[in-house]
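Support request from a user on the community tier.

User writes: "When I paste my structure tokens into the form, the page sometimes reloads and wipes my input. The last time it worked, I copied everything first. Here is what I submitted, just in case something in the input itself triggers the reload:"
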């Protein structure tokens, strides 16, 4: 068994420059929009949320890749660009569009090996794959696992509670909504392949479980089953 050590094709200043590009691209996507239909008032449709999610995914992908012996540079650059087109392309094509933007950037900045660019773009293109991830490259698996893990755990719970406010739900719906995060965490734990992602998924799942138990303990009237129809608020 051995981990292949490769010379890093991406320096720290180059990575910082990429981060800046991604942040600016997301901000411009929101500004250029003609105002219609995307529910920008939803926090996760904002450039700031999306960029923060991307940074979390970069961090998780780096951790998983380094522990699992995947190419850390491919995983972190793919993670950085994976949702770049999320705010200006339709959901169904945002992965392909993101790969296109990444390729354009990587081919016109620095001197990155073609094989590196191909691997990064392939991972971005495949990151919204919904099937069994065991057939994908190690780096793509790291990205998909990292992407799933950012939506579960304490951060996933915070976002879900925030969403309740935007949907004008009362706090009595909290147990039901947290239960959805718990379910999402269980789905993520069942889908991840690597030991590292599995460990992180279970650690995060435990946090949501605790929160849910504390909530039900403190508010006996609360129910995980109760469904309330949301009243959506406009911007
Ligand atoms: Fe994502």
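"...and here is what came back when it finally went through:"
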């Amino acid at each position: 068994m051995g981990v292949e050590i490769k010379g890093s094709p991406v320096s720290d200043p180059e990575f910082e420059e990429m981060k800046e590009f991604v942040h600016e691209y997301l901000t411009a996507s929101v500004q250029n929009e003609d105002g219609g239909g995307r529910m920008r008032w939803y926090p996760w449709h904002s450039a700031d949320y999306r960029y923060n999610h991307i940074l979390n995914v970069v961090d998780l992908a780096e951790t998983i890749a380094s522990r699992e012996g995947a190419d850390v540079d491919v995983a972190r650059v793919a993670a950085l660009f994976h949702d770049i087109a999320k705010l200006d392309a339709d959901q169904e094509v945002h992965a392909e569009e993101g790969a296109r933007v990444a390729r354009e950037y990587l081919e016109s900045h620095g001197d990155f090996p073609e094989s590196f660019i191909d691997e990064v773009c392939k991972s971005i293109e495949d990151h919204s794959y919904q099937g069994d991830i065991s057939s994908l490259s190690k780096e793509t698996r790291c990205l998909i696992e990292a992407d799933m893990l950012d939506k579960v755990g304490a951060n996933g719970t915070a976002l879900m509670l925030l969403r309740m406010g935007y949907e004008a739900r009362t706090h009595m719906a909290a147990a039901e909504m947290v239960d959805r995060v718990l379910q999402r965490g269980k789905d993520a734990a069942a889908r991840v392949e690597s030991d590292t992602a599995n460990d992180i998924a279970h650690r995060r799942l435990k946090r949501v479980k605790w929160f849910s138990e504390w909530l039900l303990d403190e508010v006996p009237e609360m129910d995980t089953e109760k469904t309330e129809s949301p009243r959506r608020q406009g911007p």
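Agent notes: The reload is a front-end session timeout and is unrelated to the input. The radius of gyration is 19 Å. The chain has a mean pLDDT of 89. Escalated to web team.
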